[in-house]
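Loading example: each entry is read as two labelled lines plus one structure line.
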Amino acid sequence: MSGRSAGFRFIPGGTTIEETAVDYQLIIKVAPFFAKAAWSTVVVSFLSFALGLSIAFPAAFCRLSQNRFLQIPARVYVSVFRGTPCLIQLFVIYFGGPQIGIQLEPFMAGVLGLGINIGSYMTESIRGAILAVSRGQTEASRSLGLNKFQTMRKVVLPQAAGLMISPLGVNTIALIKGSSLVSAISVLELAYTAHRFTNSTYRPFEMFILASTFYLVIITLTSKAIRNLNGRFAYEK
Amino acid sequence: MISLKDIWKSFGDNQVLKGISLEVERGKILVIIGPSGSGKSTLLRSINHLETIDRGEIWVDGVQVNAPLKGRKFEKHINRVRQEMGMVFQHFNLFPHMTVMENITMAPMLLKKIPREKADAQARGLLEKVDLADKMNCYPVQLSGGQKQRVAIARALAMEPKVMLFDEVTSALDPELIGEVNKVMKRLASEHMTMLIVTHEMRFAAEVADHVIFMADGVIIEEGPPEEIFSNPAHERTRRFLFEVFKS
């Protein structure tokens, strides 16, 4: 009986059972580095979020415009950036950029790639929210004599704002998780850090679980913030 | 005051208005009745340019609503024209993110640059007129259908329009709430507001109208003073419609 279990314990390369168990001390030792990397994930995500939103609002209005010269570029933007993998977009910017004279640091390239990518999703979230405000609202406003812009500003957007928080929240959470892709262009964030420590310690399980824990914390806090924001806009029709 | 000349309008293959002409004099009340699908709502919405007509002329207080202007010039023109017309909808369309007060004062403050205190005072007066002085700080969600519709009327009146258009304003209301809205409209009538009313409320129409038009299938079948239309309709189609309505 003991012979059989000894056979199971044998691992090629002389590793013993003690070494295969989770090394908590190592986790505690590397945790500060991960905390720093988590902060960098937050910064990358936040900047990409800001960039994405600032692209998405004008793009959504262009998408809704009746002017073809505004509408078509916005449509192309959305379909290209939603229709290709974010990782490839990052490669095009970071590796392909220098070839056409755009040389960016990994961090800049990462923020730019993530921002433009998430902006395409956010465009659709914003457009959807604006379209979800009932037609009767626009009619009532126009019938009072407000023009298109006044109607958008006073009547449609304040209502659409509440409707766009949830979908934009979904985009934001996808963005935070997607920010791990920038590790592929060597941005020093959580995923990259986990990779690096794996290479030096040969403890992938600890490293990636630790990275996951930090992601989970960031995303839980973000979700909570989104829920709070949503609650503030809650009113019934 | 309102003058429609040979109005034609189709939605795709569906010809909904087939050469409608009518006049409403200043201070008079025109009521349009007719079965659903007869084009009466489309006609009313055309006057406010919420629907674009294919042919014909729409004049309100000496101004052509569908003026032959293009692009931005037309936009400017229509926004000015709409300020002179109040419109009330079947589904109220109050702005849910504004209080009752804000619903009423928003347009005058924004478009006529009326200062807040003055706009507020005017709104309080209007709310008194529609018996809702105590609801000024409520949000629309806190009101009943009848109250919402009365706020919508006050909102339209705040722009001091020359004419009021009512598009089936009691059709979405519970029966017990219809009276309060009709009462407000009667009060307006007694103040000689020029009104064009599309309604299914025959008793109300008979009481308030100066002139009644019966429409069906995009044409005016018959028109005249209410006594005549309701008690002695000339046309078979009108008789059948009224019979069906009063039967229930």
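DSSP finds nine helices and ten strands in chain B.
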